[in-house]
Amino acid sequence: MNELKRIRFDLWPRTDTPADGPREIPYLDLAGEDDPIDFLFTLGGRYGLIARANLHTLQGTKKAGKSAAGLALIIAALKGEFIGLTPSRADLEILWIDTEQDRNTLRQKARAVLAVAGLDTMPDRVKIVALRGYGSPADLLAATLQAIADNAADLVFLDGVVDLCPAFNDEEKSRAVVRQLEAYAEQYGAAVLGLIHTNKHDNEARGHLGAVLQQKSAEIYQVNKDGNTAKVTQPFSRFAPVPDFSFTFADDFKIGPAGASADTDQWRYYFRQFEPLFHDTARLQSKDLVQLYMDYHLKGKRTAQEAVKSAVFFGALDKRKEGTSVFYSLPFAVEDTDTDTFTDGEPDGTADTDTSAQDTSTAGEDYPILFRPGAE
Predict the structure, then answer these.
(1) Where is 209: in which H helix or E strand?
(2) Domains of the chain (ranges plus CATH)?
(3) Which of 53, 233, 267, 306 could form a disulfide with 260 if both were Cys (CB 3.0 to 4.6 A apart)?
(4) What is the DSSP string of 260-292?
(5) HSE (CB half, 13 Å, CA atoms) of 197?
(6) Burial (CB count within 10 angstroms: exposed 0-12, middle 13-18, buried 19+), residue 283
């Protein structure tokens, strides 16, 4: 086992008294210029979500699919597009911190993310921290803050904010925890997405911790489950609102596009528009798909391009970026790596991917709590 890296407990606030000496007051200069809001993702190619250097809340009742909604963002960051979500750039750095799952379950979830993203191994730009059983809430908070500082990730998915607080119904302690997370999001330019449970009767985040987290969040996302489908809504945003989006649950922690992430009729319409174009191939590059649509439907280039965007948004096309090239396929096409072709997969959209025998050792890691799938 790797040697433990020393946790800096100075990250945990020791007192509520202000520091001694004069301080510089941050007056706002109205003549100054600010960078535009940097959203890490867009939905449907239009709506920005998960703003950098901000705190965000992902909430829902138990087993509603909150963790899966966060993983959908990670899948989109790895795959280039997923259920209409597209990363702002291809190399987003991800820090996934989990305080609830045992290492075996967390490793299974990570492998499911890889399978849905169509990858065999986890890229170095994704770090996973397993904090269950790590220590007291103060220990977990200090480790979380240190991981944020050490990795300078774009997206921090914090699955289990409540475990960082010694008493989630204590307003003072709750504010101290949220204040620290907010400060680190600002200081390191990270979008910190904190997961928290809601009350069954009013959909409000639990306790004073949940209330303070909501107050300080730039965006709040609510997850509700109906049968095998989870719907993500945005009840609050300091920016432009984002439409609802959905996903479905499959086996082995996998998720996939809902048959209609917004509307079943729209999905059917666009699927029928594009299905004939793939009669002799399993995937097409962007320019070829647009040209085929123009020729088949006798439409102009702009109409074809908009149809492609809409088909991706409604889940009728799967979009995947490989280097500088963009490829499209019909939903649930699974790549056969032996023949370098694509075959029709099962309708749950999952690939038959076995990562159990792969060598993904983490020798040399600074954190023994950091691992990639396959590491012990």
Answers:
(1) helix 207-216
(2) 35-259+357-371 (3.40.50.300), 264-330 (1.10.10.10)
(3) 267
(4) -SS-HHHHHHHHHHHGGGGTT-SEEEHHHHHHH
(5) 13
(6) middle
